[in-house]
Amino acid sequence: MTVTHPGGGAYGDQSSVVTGDAVVLDLRPAGFATRMVALAFDLVLQLILLYLANQVALRVGADLDTAVMAAVVVGSMVLVVVGYPTAFETLTRGRSLGKLVMGLRVVGTDGSPEQFRQALARGLCAAVEIWAVWGVVALISSMINRDGRRIGDFVAGTLVVEERSGRKPKEAVPMPPQLAEWAAAAEMSALTPDTVAMARQYVLRYSELTEQARRDMGERIAGLVSASVSPPPPEGTPPVGYLAAVLAERRRREEEKAARRQEQRGGPPHSRQE
Description:
The chain is mainly α.
């Protein structure tokens, strides 16, 4: 997996994360200053938590053995320094409180949502590159790397990106006419946003893929989608047509829901892209 940097253009220094299957995901790496502000927010919060944890430990453990007391203090530090970012980023799919405030998110270098193992790797590395050496290692790494990645990002295979980057409007996926009737009656409420995003990238980048990638990825993604959509499409439907029909029908239903909500509020309806 590699990260390429198209030169300039209408979207500035926006990067494209390219997966091993050559699917391009448009992501904008977070700026150095923005990341530092988010990190500072998290560090202040963690310091407050450490102070509170130590105060509780001192009061509760006043009569405890010195060794037990030391173990309690060390355990509290591990929970705050490693446990806080790991748990928070896992539960929120890549956002700590600081990143949430600054509109940032941690994703895999292939554009996938951050997983627990990646959050844990970043948390463990942060204990060394941020806490143990006063952030010097993380600061240097973020400054010299074009995408602002620290050591923990390299170990975990992650990238911090902006969620409020003013991207261009998403392209609409057209409905294959021969599948419109089937799609209108299909049940697809169980589809997850991650699966939809994956299917959408495949359909929109279909012409950029090799024949092998089209076949392999199409079968794999269609298999994931079919687990949440029923009934199956007409026999002989190619994966790209099947996925396009699901995406187009899902968008149509969401636009209808949005229009109904606007009508109930007394405002003009507006369209919504998936």
